[in-house]
Every structure is written in structure tokens, then in C-alpha cells.
Amino acid sequence: MDKLILGRYIPGNSPIHRLDPRSKLLAMFIFILIIFWANNLVTNLIMTGFTLSLIGLSRMKLSFFLNGLQSMFGIILFTTAFQMFFNHQGQLIWQFGILKITDTGFQTATLIFMRFVLIISFSTLLTLTTTPLSLSDAVESLLKPLKPFKVPVHEIGLMLSLSLRFVPTLMDDTSRIMKAQRARGVDFGEGSMVQKIKSIIPILIPLFASSFKRADALAVAMEARGYQGGDGRSKYRRLLWRWPDSLTILIMIGLGLLLFILKS
Hints:
Blueprint: H1 15-18, H2 21-34, H3 41-57, H4 62-86, E1 92-96, E2 99-102, H5 103-129, H6 132-142, H7 153-183, H8 193-224, H9 243-262
Antiparallel strand pairs: 1-2
Helix pairs in contact: 2-5, 2-9, 3-5, 4-5, 6-7, 7-8
């Protein structure tokens, strides 16, 4: 829990930090679209090198970045294991009962694993280098064309901002509650699967209680400050699109064209 970095913002003055949040958000959407064209060794190496170069430009230590992603690897491995064991196409490599590993299933699972890792890495880099308020402004700005269709643009941006802001807080609360329960003699690692699931209940109940209490306090604070939604509100932070932002989008488009050419 203490190592989880998804949703956290790390202050800095790197070229990635200085980009307009709209360009970083658009770059992430393009990245998620073109990652599905990386379906062989060469294209995956290109995407991996590109992601590592972005981490280098952000001036963050790779060890810090990898340690923060360790908590997500279990979910990724669990997801890709289904593809590996239950895809029976291709030549059989290993079998134990109903579980089979074929060359096609192994290759597909490897591609899915790489896609998950790269998408999570890119999205984590986005949140590490962009404040939640800037992301909220970026979402609201990009969704402005939908405002005439009665889409609650400002409310969507506000919900995104609050969600990203309170992800680290919820993780800190979870860690604090687990330490308190361990001090009372609760062991989360012993017993059968049913007992392990039951041991989570002493975490969930106080976590939900603290979350509702924090949400109520936030609502009261917003009302006390006269919050009335997005209509008629001025902006303290002005988004400024500059030439590095245009260059970023062009690089992402060029990367997509390269992957399209090299894909299998």
C-alpha cells in the first residue's frame, strides 16, 4: 500500500511536467489505441523503449517507478494467466489436467502482459507529472464540444479530479487500518481462503465509514465556500497550448504509423 504511486503527483520541472495536461491526456488516449498494433517483438521493443525514454524525460528514478508498480503486477499476472492456460490453439508445450500451455497461448499471454504493463506505466506517468486539478481542467476543456448536448462537462472533470485526489488517501487509510488490526492480533496471511476473505471485513467496514465521513466533510466544505458548479465560474489556472504540445501529438501519431507498418 505504501508503495502505490498510481494517482499520486510528484512535483518537478521536467519537460514532461511542463507539457499542457491536454496534450498529455490526448497522448495517453493515442497510446492506448496504438498499443494494440504492437503484436510482435519489434513493435513491443519500440513501445518499451519509448515508455522508458518518457520516464527518463520525467527525471524520475526507474527503481522508484518499478517499485510503485509492484502492487499492480499481481492483477496483471492473474489476468494473463487465463489467456495462457485456456487458449488451446497452437502446439502443446505443457499440460497438467485441464490446464494446457500452447505456443499460441503463451505468445498471446505475453502480448497481453506487455500491453497491460505499458498502459499502466504510461497512465501512471501521466498522474505522476500532472496535478489532479490540471487533469480536471484538461478533461473539461477537451469535452467542451459536448456541452451543447447537455453533457455535464464540469461535473465529469470534477469527479475525475476528486477520484484521482483521494486514491492515495484511501490507500493510506487502508494501510493505517491494517496496521491497527494487526496490532489487535488480526493475521491477514493465515488460514484458508474463506478465513482470509473474512479477515478483510475488519478493513472494509472502517474504510467505508471513513470514506463516507470524508465525502460528507468535503461536501460541507464546498458548500461553505459557495460552490455552485461550472456555470459562471472563472479560471485561476489558464491552460496554454505551446509548440512542445503539438510536437508531442505529432510524435504519437508518427509512432502509431510506425507500429502500423511494422505490425504482423
